[in-house]
Amino acid sequence: QVQLVESGGGLVQAGGSLRLSCAASGRSFSGNAMGWFRQAPGKERELVAVISGGGSTRYSDSVKGRFTISRDNAKNTVYLQMNSLKPEDTAVYYCAAGRNFFFNAPGQADYWGQGTQVTVSS
Known about the structure:
By secondary structure, the protein is mainly β. It has strands at about 5, 10-15, 20-25, 35-40, 45-50, 55-60, 65-70, 75-80, 90-95, 110, 115-120.
């Protein structure tokens, strides 16, 4: 059974940093896409960042230059380094993994973590 377990969320002041981790178990995702989505209250779930099976990355325009996604295939883990956080980054952040090489929308991901809350105070 595949499981994705996130950690690293919390409360931080604007301008601060957090690092999210997502450890996968049950199968290897070394050749598959992994990424992060977020969902704020009353809003749809949106892509934050994705890293393909080959290591290329894509970011939403709202986080480009502030967030960095990376992966450690030996640990079957994906990370999201979030710097210069803003109140509008407040959301539940979800780790996702896919059976394919790449995804860029929630409907294209196959496995999901339980979510971790990130709250940025002004």
